[in-house]
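Box 3.1. Reading complex inputs
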Amino acid sequence: MKRLAVPVVLVAAVLGVGLVAFLAAPSAPTSGAAAAAGIAADLRCPDCQSLSVAESRTAASAAIRAEIVAQLDAGRTPDEVRQHFVDRYGAWILLRPALPLAWIAPLLALAAGVAWLGWWISDRRTRPLPPAPPAPDAATRRRLADEAEALDA
Amino acid sequence: MRSNLRWLLLPALLLPLGWLLFVNIGADPRTIPSQIICRSLPAFSLTTLDGDTFTDADLAGRPAVINFWASWCGPCVAEHPVLLDVASVAGGSVQLVGVVYQDRPASAAGWLRRYGDGGWPDLVDDGNLALDFGVTGPPETYFVDADGIVRDRVVGPLTTQSMRDGLHEIGVDLS
Amino acid sequence: MLPTIGHAAIVVALALTLYAALAFWLGARRNDRAAVASGRAAMTGAFALTAIASVALMASLLTHDFSIAYVARNNATTTPPFYSVISLWAALEGSILFWALLLTGWSALLLHRYRDRHAELMPWVGLTLALGSAFFFAVMTWPGNPFERLTPVPGEGNGPNALLQNNPFMGLHPPLLYLGYTGMAIPFAFGMAALVTGRTGPEWLAIVRRWTVIPWIFLTAGIVAGAWWSYEVLGWGGYWAWDPVENAALLPWLTATAFIHSSMVAERRGGLRTWTMALVVFTYVLTLVGTFLTRSGVVASVHAFTASAIGPWFAVAILVALAGGLGLLLWRLPNLADRDVAPNAVSRESAFLLNNVLFLGLTFVVLFGTLLPMIVEGATGDRISVGAPYFNAINAPLFGALLFLMGIGPALPWGGASWRTIRDRFGGPLLLAVGAALVGVLLGMRGLPQLGTLFLAILVLGILGDELIRGARSRGRSRGETPPTAAWRLATRNRRRYGGYVVHAGICVMAIAVAVSATGASQASATLHIGESMKVGGYTLTLRDVVVEPLRDDPRVTETRAELDYRGSQSGALVTAQRDYPNSTTPIATPGVRTFATEDLYVTLLQADASGGTASLQVFRNPLVAWIWLGGFVVVVGAVFAVWPDRRRAVVVAPAPAREAPASVQVTGA
């Protein structure tokens, strides 16, 4: 039981601090400027590389930023604004891909990794130990000594 | 059993990886396919550099070439003779339209005086028309057929050949 | 004359590396020491010839010999000497030559150091390195010839890529990165040798660990220096955009880091041999994937070279390396069956294994996200983007979890931890971290990214400090040394352990700085007339003058400069500029950056009109950015400390305790 208590306490401590941090965080962007900045950060700058519309200073990015503000002011929802640009530039403009595969695959991979780790530990705890290999022979020891010496050279 | 099956890992990894490595070689990652091709011209109503109003209705019934440019755009200088050439050869069968992209009208007018004004209307864009077309940056040229459907796009400076190909798409063949 | 010499040197080097491969193979098969020696000499010769070719290309760049296509494309008569020299690696063909130079350099160094040792392994190591080098010479002989001639000879060259000649940092990060990339061929070569000979025991691990950490240091330094370059040059106020080429540098770093950790478990507990071997193979293959992404023209990136014909060559090389590495691994799989010890769920082993799962998870996310646009385009023809918002959303929790493990892992005992140990070791740091988070809230830090990172980083630093103090105190007690002496001696007697702690401390500093700078920046933009001011993040900036004039050391370049005063918690003057290069259609930003301990003031000139006396400015106040570079420096110092050769060393071959399975061989001070 005590074994279990340790990770539980650690995890609880982390979650607790996380919760405090989360509560201390400002809630979702309410102001128009913050919403516009959020959309701009998710759209790819059409005439530069790897930067978002929010980061880029090119003419096209400036035009898109202005259009985002105009559309939000006109009462469109952020999703509608994003769709507006997808209709004109294609899915290419979304830096956060809408493809479900993009989000599912990493989660599956992580889950598989953690499952493998669980299996690895439990498997080795239940399996009898194979015989220990012979200790390194004299030649190996000599080589290791040489190795250590060479590292100092 | 296990000893043989493990070899399946090799083709399972190598075949998809090989496909992935080779499939995109030669494709240019910089060009984005246009969304507006085969769609109708967006509606607009803009002012020209001369102060007239120009709308999408003014293009109805005629093939048109819509060229986005700016005075701050270097390659626009290089492609300008191609446009001037078409205006003089085929000005009767195709409507040329310039759209001044993210620029001051005064600078654009000065640029035309310097490099030659072909006489076609140059619209001052408030930013929306370029976004509606999905323009990535000047120079960029769209070819619109007589029914108002966008048929082709050229990103970057026009060449005589790309202009010829674009015009062919909208039913204008230069002899 | 020079291009002929250079080209001949490359062709002969190709022949020499192929000969070396044959000699090593014969030497290994027939146990022929003379053949191995001649292979070694051939590799040294290849290195010398590559050095000659590099000097020839450098001299051609310095003398502006435009009869060479590479020089004509990447140099001009007005290019300053410094940028002429670094043009060796600033474009495609030259960078391959530079790569070959470093790779053969590492190979020659390694083969000579180990010429009298590891007689069974070294021929296979040499064979792998020779084949790896031969590939680059083949690329330079056929599709990517750096000495290709140009007729007619142009009177003036195109000049270097404007972005690359705008800042002297360009001379720093590519060589560091290339030293890291090419160095990763060494662990791969040892891995192949170990698999072929079946000598996959402790001997292999001891060498490979060391020869992974050394290139890892260069790779780390290169990544941090590259981020610094991006920040100082690109002018968008950030340093990391999850650009495909940035990701390409990160990928082998992630797997190499995973290897460094899992090899500790393997060395100490004997298990995980298949796993560590696979990581070595992946790391090498990922360096090749990186070069493919950068040089084949398949991704759009600020850092990518122009499209070229070498893409298929690299694609084949990746497939061959992966097939060879994995094939050998699968062939040896039955012999590699792990003799692992059962660890407790809360033990250092499981912390290290979870670390590996997380590092591999990060590798998967970064690789998958980078390749996904290629996969989708290849499969459907559609174009999609995967950018910073995606990578940040998925990777931030993984980095957070790693940060947490970084603290508890080294402090957990091998085998398993008791409740008492955990309370003793983590109680104090936990309280410290909670206190730090509360102080953070009082200081105005908000949001999970900032406070969570601060909490975890302080927790880790607390645990590390506690470990050092505990160790020093016990040493001081038993030997009667003063605490500082005891701490220094403790650290220098256990370089790997305490060097590792310094690395972790540096990462903690970087983590806090990244989290705070990413979420706490403020920015503003405005168009000012001379004499007007703007305010951002507590600073008042006043435009003093706008000047347009040619650059002093390259008159073909026109610089438009805005001169500003800033007043706030710090005051002074700064200059931000745009440079118009004759070979660039868009002006290149030259941001003005003022670095202080708590923040950077970062000003980009968007547009300026000297006649009207106006300038459009984008101003960022980026908190704590300097600490990212400082943390990176600490990481490198710690890693160098860890691998620094120790004068006092001992080889301890510990007899295996009854419950603890395999022979755990520890080379202290190595």
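In summary: Residues 348-380 of chain C form the longest helix (33 residues).
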